[in-house]
Amino acid sequence: MEKTTKFIIYAPDTYFYKRIIYELSIAFKNNGLDSFYTTRESTLKKIIDQYRYKNDIIYFFLINKTLESSEVSSNIKIINWIQDYKFNGKNIIDFQFFKNQYYYFLINPIAWDLKIKKDINWSILLPAATSSKNQINHNEKFDLDVSFVGFIPPPLNLNQIISCTKSHNTVELKKVLSKIDKSLFHHSTFSLKKLKDELKITLDKFGIAVLSQESEHIFEELIPRTIEREQIMNKLISAQIKFKIYGPKTWREWTEFKKYYAKEVIKYSKLLSIYSSTKINIHNGALGMHWRVMDVLSLGSFLITNKSKFDNMPGGINNYLINEEDFVFYEPGSIIDTVDYYLGNPKIRKEIGYNAKRKIQKFHTWDNRVNQILEDLKVIHSKKNFPTSHNLDQLNFMRFFQNKIII
User: Fold this and answer.
1) What's the confidence (pLDDT) of residue 404?
2) What pLDDT, in 10s, does the model give residues 69-105?
3) pTM
4) Rounded CA separation 314/310 (Å)
5) Cα gap 80→64, rounded to integer Å
6) Would strands 90-91 and 76-82 be described as parallel, antiparallel, or unpaired?
7) Closest C-alpha to 406, from 64, 45, 101
């Protein structure tokens, strides 16, 4: 019997991840491969049980989830796409990496202080954009001068108590922050290893040896996603520009930002409309090749982003795009100078946006990513004339399962 090849794509059950696995599934279909996607772990288990030791080759493409090698057989291949530093309450640095699985990272593992063993198969898989045939057109009528789309935590409670899970010693957050260099939390200079090292030295002075998960989350994720964005927003507010913030409702908890907060936009098409009707879109983060960056540039819209120490590393933005040709770097302290210059030069903005769109649509669509996956995994397959793409969550799964024709 001829072997068939299928891809099962899994991601956590959120609107954002549902869009990703849908886009991936369509791209596999465009490559002549059957693909099916789900957000249910129970569905994965049923498919593994159904196809264990069968003739078909089944690839499980898992986003922010891992499977033990003992759970699968030789005809079932596991690909892991790790997008977060922590997920499922686990730290990826502590994961057991298996030789017979393939690992993708959204950002260079160095960013997470992760050293991969030589016998582990891995690569970087970047975010991707929707192809131009499914994309909305760029809007020449601008509603805003500047917009920022993204997350900010609620304002820090500086009186919050940080405790040691081992000795039960405690210290106020503001005392720790008064002793540590704030630049360690900036996206432009962020290093998880350096932050952890400096934090350990500082906390030792207060008798704090082991942090709780909640306290780790504050230092490693909440403060880095606060300190630079707060600075940037305050700079923008001081300028005389038409400016709006989009993101979760935590922005409302900041008194100074409440007036400029618009809403949280979940629907993808509405998000793209904001990007396309804004003269200058701002990105802030350690990851230059971010989902937001891809979406903005794929429209031909203009984007400015902060620099990061990862920009020149494998997977960094400077390996794919050119500053002042496809996008523009800004310094958080002088962001208004950058904004003022490009607001006053619409022709340059348009040229940069056009350059970016051309590159994104040529090299950074979902079809490009699937082509990379097939090459990395050396998948040899006969393209089907009418490949399938289905959302297993919307099918009567048990009926298919019982009839042994799940997929």
Assistant:
1) 47
2) 777 788 899 999 999 888 776 778 778 889 889 999 9
3) 0.92
4) 8
5) 7
6) unpaired
7) 45
**Do residues 265 and 147 lie in contact, with contact meaning Cβ atoms separated by under 8 Å?**
no
pLDDT of residue 1: 46
100: buried, middle or exposed (CB in 10 Å: 19+, 13-18, 0-12)? Answer: exposed
Are residues 254 and 232 in contact, defined by beta-carbon separation less than 8 angstroms? no
Distance CA 326, CA 402 (A): 52
The residue to which tokens 């906390």 are assigned: 203
Residues 165-189, buried b or exposed e (16+ Cβ, 10 A)? eeeeeebebeebbeebeeebbbbbb
Structural domains of the chain ordered from first start: 5-128+366-402 (3.40.50), 132-154+226-363 (3.40.50.2000), 161-221 (no CATH)
Question: What residues form DSSP beta bridges with 60?
Answer: 8, 78
Q: 267-303 burial string, b = 16+ CB within 10 Å, else e? A: ebeebbbbbbbbbbbbbbbbbbbbbbbbbbbbbbbbb
pLDDT value of position 403:
45
pLDDT score at 400: 47
CA angle at 385 for the pair 381 and 388, rounded to the nearest 5° = 80
Q: Which amino acid is at 194?
A: K
pLDDT under 50 in the chain at which residues?
1, 398-406
| DSSP string for 121-161 | EEEE----B--GGGSPPPPSS-SEEEEEE---PPPP-TTPE
Nearest to 339 by CA among 296, 308, 305: 305
Closest CA to 150 of 320, 286, 14: 286
User: Can you tell me the distance from the alpha carbon of 105 to that of 251, in angstroms, rounded to the nearest whole number?
Assistant: 29
